[in-house]
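# step 3/5: fold
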Amino acid sequence: MTPVVIALFAVAFAIETASAAQVSYYAVPTGAHPHDVAPAPDGTVWYTAQHQGALGVLDPKTGKTHHIPLGPGAAPHGVIVGPDRAAWVTDSGLNAIARVDPATKEVKLFALPAEFAGANLNTATFDRKGILWFTGQSGVYGRVDPATGKVDAWKAPKGRGPYGITTTPSGEVWYASLAGDHIVKIDTVSGDALMVAPPKPGAGPRRIWSDSKGMLWVSFWTSGEVARYDPLAKSWKVWPLPKSKGGCYSVYVDDKDKVWVTDFVANAIHRFDPVTEKFDTFPSDKRGASVRQMLGRPGEAWGAESGTDRLVVVRD
């Protein structure tokens, strides 16, 4: 299948002229409902086919895809690349973390403890020691030690809400709680959680990502803003989306410390430059794109259009 490629000039906030960028779309199987996406080490792109219980694999060179079934009842949400170059998937249907070997396609499951059934697993990150940390929207966060297979989990402060999660360059692990309306620093030894409130109540922190300096970027779903939290100064700075007053879903910081967010209301992806404090906007060419989490590699920012059964990439 040949990908659809659109060369365009980004629509910029504050009438700034944006550099030319190429936006490409890749169709995935109808009904896959791709949720999260992760560029794989071999040049392919992994995505979670949430409604088909599989890990999807896209070859951008050919546009072809194939699915690796995760098991009966699977409903994968997040996918990331592990230090072992494998795909690590948070699966709410299986209530387990799944490791998918890229060579053998073997699926290994790490089930949550019985007392944490129905965790509604969301997103994962690896710390600097190779431990995987995860969130569950039902009010759970926890960790998996890939070396031993041991899984630990804790009840989240304020219950429901744990969503996006990230690791800073210094090794700190933070997550965002959408329903709980806060972000959390996890003590990676004890598992204790330290809550930090947003600058105003009701912001709805959904996803979180660290930049190269350890600053935490947070998508405010309810208020339609992208925010930066400085853990050392314990201070926030907030920028409203250029066109929307709600619907800021994901956040991802690339290798140049540019901040990418998705905007459900404007049906667009935004790239934010923290230096100039300007946005470039890349609207979808189809309605209802609903881009969930983004990830990338140098020169490429990838997302999954869950509403159109496509993957999207912005190349510069």
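# step 4/5: annotate
The chain has no helices and 30 strands.
# step 5/5: archive (pending)
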